[in-house]
Amino acid sequence: MSYWDRFPRYVSVAEKKAKAAKKLKQLSKKNPNLKPVILQGTAIACTWWGKAWNRNLERYADYHNRIGRGRSYVRHGAVLDLQIDSGEVLASVQGSQSSPYSVVISIKTLKKDIWQTIINQCQGMLESLRELINGSFPKTMAEIFTHKDSGMFPSPKEIKFSCSCPDWAGMCKHVAAALYGIGARLDESPALFFKMRNVEMGELIGQAISEHKQKLLALASKKSSRIIEEANLSQTFGIELEHDLEVSSSVSSESAVSISSRNTRKTATSAKGRSSAKDTLRKKGARKTKKVLAKNTPPKRKRRGL
Q: Is the overall model pTM greater than 0.70, yes or no?
């Protein structure tokens, strides 16, 4: 065995990133549905769910010493694909070889009795899914989720994994990178955690939604003091309203007759005025015509006797 076989050539982080990016570009042409893990900064996870997932892995002694091997891999983009489904995670991780390694992680779904206990303990603590997704819940609720024995996060005995690489280690760096990749992916979509554990996240706020609806219905059924029932209105003001309607009707009739009479008189007066005005103009025109004719007619000559 040569020296280079025993001690592989050092590969810088920049070179690893470039190699992973090149391979991702090649694979994307064949499979456009790839979901690579791409970090926006140096932190692997930033949200409550992503951080809680990573902390859960690191707190177990049998994971703590081995999982760190995958941090650098996930940071330089070696996780070319990560698919999360109910009870299973499939990943493709670029290693030292030209082809990426296939990683399969099996995670036991959450037991129904544990899930029901969590639902009961969390009643009244949440009002919306947004609070749950954003991790905006009380510390007590966070402790319920992350409890080592009865929480939502899996223990090492609930996780099984395998990798196509030749590494003999129980947890190779490719598996570790995929596990950290799950934490990074939960930053983007916390709902995937519930899918992975095969539980409905909406059940955690079902009780809060039901109570909110009941309050709205109770408020809607209450009658405002400013609103008077129609029956009470007719009983209290029925006679007065009928009398007022009769008076109003008679007044309206009288008003209509009065207005009609006034309109008739106005029409007659207006017609009479127009007629007299026409007569005056006719008379003036006749007198003027006579004057013009008289002025233009030559005077008659007197006949002389023979």
A: no
